[in-house]
Amino acid sequence: MKRDTRIELGLDELRAVAAYAVACTRLVLPVFEARNPADMRPGAAVEAALAFANGARRSRLLRECAWAALRSAREVTDTGGIAAGEVARAAAAAAGAAYLHPLAASTQVKHILGSAAHAARAIELSGEGEADGDLATLRDLATPLVASVLRRYPAAPPGGGRVGELMRELDRAVRGPVPTEDPSP
Predict the structure, then answer these.
(1) pLDDT of 115 higher than 60
(2) Using CA atoms, how far apart are residues 139 and 47, in angstroms rounded to an integer?
(3) What SS3 string covers 28-39?
(4) What is the pTM of this model?
């Protein structure tokens, strides 16, 4: 018998996930803008994700902005802007958050926490913060609705280097402790 891998996921929940991704990316966008002020692609990806979070339709614009932000990430990383590259990846992930699928697959966690994990890595690389405090800040940006969506998915997948490690740390932090049943009657 084939197991059902679909989960409930409403449009309001997708919008909440996108809003979380935008909030995380906006924290670090100044790192990119200081390095490459003429490149508007990551900012455009964030704005497209914000428009979706605020009620715009999911459209080709989100995908185009995500791809453009990824091209920007490669370009700035190639010129030594590693932290700025992580910011651009966070922006691409913010635009991609709208494409979270209702499938119980660990890889879908990247749509929920990808922006936060890349933002955390950008902060580490830029020397702008401290790891524990920054992860707590990114965790606290997640609304209860975002945490509820995350809990429907399996844990973040292994791999992914330092960004993957940060994603798994955020996954545990946003999910919170696993509720236990009260043994009393």
Answers:
(1) yes
(2) 22
(3) HHHHHHHHCCCC
(4) 0.91
Q: Tokens for 7?
A: 């989960």
User: Residue 89 has which token pair?
Assistant: 């990846």
- Kind and range of the H or E run holding 101: none
Q: Which residues contact 136 (CB under 8 A, 6 or more apart)?
A: 173
Q: Looking at the chain, list the stretches that DSSP marks H as alpha helix, in order from N- to C-terminal side.
A: 11-35, 41-53, 60-78, 82-96, 109-126, 131-141, 144-151, 161-175
146-175 confidence digits (pLDDT tens):
999 999 999 999 999 999 999 999 999 999
11-35 and 144-151 helices, crossing angle to 10°: 110
> In whole angstroms, what is the distance from residue 110 CA to residue 167 CA?
8
Residue count (the chain): 185
Helix (H, G, I), strand (E, B) or coil at 103: strand
